[in-house]
Structure to design on (711 residues):
């Protein structure tokens, strides 16, 4: 006959005379199939009638369950919980507050996954029906969300309710894994340790009946701040003793510890590989920054120097305020120049390091779809991607933009996997900040909200609320800069550069139609506009009116050939590895040969022949990197096609949002560097495909076979 299992219910009590007997009755009435309860009541120095009421309840003989009653001086909830756990003997342990916010009828949902051997830790998250309303107060609700998001961010976890009371643990595990916190900070401490040791925290829905501070709720604002600090501390504090204790429990626990160490080493290794490769590649650029400068570099350095000298965002020191560029990358350069005393070599080196660090969010995103070995391989393809390597040391905005896009992708994918709204808002906020580097992010909010509305998990009310909040976040970040630009006379625009891009795209369209080189057409348009402005100065008194006229003229040409113009946004050339930049930064080849015009008018082969001009040996040295880029495209797009064939519409939508959005936007300018924002998601798709193939191919399964783990 199978031995009956025991669930230890630890009940910390402090001044709960109004609810203590009621909650004890509810605990005694709880039933779990094949399981008995052990009730451990820890009176943490109550000053009201709690002690006498507890003793009265015990002496009444209401239940046949084993009861322990422990009294101690007041030390805090964490200390009371620790005392209860130390005295527990159950196969599983659950914490039960002495108020009536949580229902013991949910014990079965929380404890059975542990008692049945499915997992070691279960958190009861306050059910979807509760998540749409405020709990005890807006402060408690937002505080719980903030702590959960902070823990998820620090530990790459996927929790939706870290602050829940119903934390349920495997008995031997929690008795071995002690905690130091004496107050409410014990919860983020134990969560942090479990996540770092590799334990998956399973979440199950529970009921929740909140009470207010006036009704006896004890947690305060300072407890929330302390919880955030505790999580941060235990993200980096040593867990040497905890690892030894956990490993001593059984072989499975020891394997968990070993696997998480391997996973952490994999992350560190792939990031170091990426950083070292980029620093080695950047040596020539560090020695001579001109090698990694391009025609656009001056338009970033000018505002950076203006910010340093005058504190004004202008095209150069002493010039009037400008909107020709967006401010974030020049601000980044200004900070680098300030730190280094004006050294461009320092800027190049720091950019190369930043380019390598992008591998971290790429790896973490890939971990959502595969184990650490698979994520390592996917992130390695990014680390060795020639376009990402080539752009990393360059004095252009691409690397900083890609860093933010990688975070944006990570947050949105975590939202898609967990449906935790703060990840959605974090992704929206990151995207809005990225607008200040590249205006291409300005419209990203539209497909993001569209994907949100395609998620069946949320009801209409929540979709409306989340959409409104997303637009408000975007507006709060972006609109002040647009108003600033209007104030300096360029109209309600994010920057002036967008008008130049429209002219560039129309010139490319007309070039192919008329057979005239695109640079010649663009120059002709410029002369025509200057002549128009000179003839009618009263119609164009400021830059805003001139830009309006240019955009209107170009839009008329677009409307005359709408399909031809739309076709320009489907250019596969953007996927080509940026071998030219890779070689130019090494001083092997030279830029400024109008290769883009040849590409637009005559095709790929003509552009390649024109660019290399017989120097095929230069191309040969990049073959290994081209191979890695090809693998990334092959795996990534194969997984997207597989998703399409199996009607996984959400993956396809994510692909359109997180990859194709950026690949379509360049229009007539299919520069390989414009593929960079799509690379993080392609790495994630590579991870997903490898995860699928491990279940189909024996040799691949043997290579990638590791225990599921969390970092």
């Amino acid at each position: 006959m199978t031995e009956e299992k025991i669930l230890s219910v630890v009940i910390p009590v402090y001044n709960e005379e109004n609810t203590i007997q009621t909650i004890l009755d509810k605990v005694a009435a709880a039933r779990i199939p094949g399981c008995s309860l052990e009730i451990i009541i820890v009176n943490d120095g109550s000053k009201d009638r709690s002690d006498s009421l507890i003793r009265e309840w015990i002496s009444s003989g209401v239940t046949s369950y084993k009861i322990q009653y422990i009294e101690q001086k007041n030390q805090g909830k964490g200390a009371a919980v620790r005392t209860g756990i130390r005295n527990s003997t159950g196969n599983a342990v659950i914490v039960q507050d002495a108020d009536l916010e949580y229902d013991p009828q949910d014990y079965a949902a929380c404890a059975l996954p542990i008692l049945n051997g499915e997992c070691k830790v279960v958190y009861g998250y306050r059910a979807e029906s509760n998540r749409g309303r405020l709990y005890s107060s807006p402060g408690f609700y937002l505080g719980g969300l903030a702590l959960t998001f902070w823990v998820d961010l620090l530990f790459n976890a996927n929790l939706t309710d870290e602050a829940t009371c119903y934390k349920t643990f495997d008995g031997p595990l929690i008795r071995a894994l002690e905690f130091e916190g004496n107050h409410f900070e014990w919860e983020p401490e134990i969560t942090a340790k479990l996540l770092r040791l590799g334990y998956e925290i399973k979440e199950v829905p529970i009921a929740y009946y909140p009470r207010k501070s006036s009704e006896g709720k004890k947690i305060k604002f300072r407890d929330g701040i302390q919880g955030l600090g505790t999580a941060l501390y235990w993200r980096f504090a040593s867990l040497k003793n905890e690892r030894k204790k956990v490993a001593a429990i059984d072989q499975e626990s020891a394997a968990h510890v070993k696997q998480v160490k391997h996973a952490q080493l994999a992350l560190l290794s792939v990031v170091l590989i990426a950083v070292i490769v980029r620093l080695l590649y950047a040596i020539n650029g560090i020695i001579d920054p001109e090698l990694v400068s391009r025609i656009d570099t001056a338009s970033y350095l000018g505002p950076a120097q203006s910010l340093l000298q005058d504190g004004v965002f202008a095209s150069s020191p002493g010039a009037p305020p400008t909107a020709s560029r967006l401010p974030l990358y020049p601000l980044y350069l200004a900070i680098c120049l300030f730190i280094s005393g004006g050294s461009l070599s320092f800027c190049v080196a720091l950019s190369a390091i930043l380019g390598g660090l992008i591998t971290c969010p790429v790896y973490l995103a890939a971990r959502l779809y595969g184990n650490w070995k698979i994520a390592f391989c996917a992130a390695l393809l990014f680390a060795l991607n020639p376009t990402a390597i080539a752009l990393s040391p360059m004095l252009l905005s691409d690397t900083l933009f890609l860093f933010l896009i990688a975070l944006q992708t990570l947050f949105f994918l975590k939202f898609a996997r967990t449906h935790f709204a703060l990840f959605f808002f974090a992704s929206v906020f990151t995207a809005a900040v990225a607008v200040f580097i590249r205006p291409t992010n300005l419209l990203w909010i539209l497909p993001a909200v569209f994907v949100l509305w395609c998620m069946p998990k949320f009801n209409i009310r929540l979709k409306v609320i989340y959409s409104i909040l997303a637009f408000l976040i975007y507006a709060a970040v972006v609109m002040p800069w647009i108003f600033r630009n209007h104030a300096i006379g360029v109209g309600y625009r994010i920057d002036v550069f967008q008008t130049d891009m429209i002219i560039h795209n129309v010139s490319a369209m007309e070039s192919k139609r008329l057979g005239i080189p695109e640079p010649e057409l663009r120059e002709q348009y410029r002369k025509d506009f200057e002549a128009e402005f000179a003839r009618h100065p009263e119609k164009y008194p400021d830059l805003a009116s001139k830009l309006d006229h240019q955009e209107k003229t170009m839009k008329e040409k677009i409307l005359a050939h709408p399909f031809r113009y739309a076709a320009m946004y489907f250019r596969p050339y953007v996927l080509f590895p940026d071998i030219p930049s890779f070689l130019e930064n090494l001083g092997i080849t030279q830029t400024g040969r109008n290769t883009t015009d040849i590409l637009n008018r005559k095709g790929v082969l003509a552009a390649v022949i024109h660019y290399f001009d017989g120097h095929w040996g230069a191309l040969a040295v990049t073959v290994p990197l081209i191979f890695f880029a090809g693998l990334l495209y092959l795996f990534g797009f194969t997984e997207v096609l597989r998703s399409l064939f199996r009607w996984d519409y959400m993956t396809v939508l994510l692909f359109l949002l997180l990859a194709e959005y950026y690949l379509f936007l360049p229009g007539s300018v299919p520069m390989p560097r414009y593929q960079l924002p799509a690379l993080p998601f392609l790495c994630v798709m590579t991870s997903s495909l490898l995860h699928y193939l491990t279940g189909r191919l024996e040799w691949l399964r043997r290579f990638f076979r590791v225990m599921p783990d969390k970092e």
The domain at 5-249 is CATH 3.90.550.10 (Spore Coat Polysaccharide Biosynthesis Protein SpsA; Chain A). Residues 129-134, 707-711 have pLDDT under 50 and may be disordered. Residues 306 and 515 are 42 Å apart (CA to CA). The first strand starts at residue 5 and ends at 13.
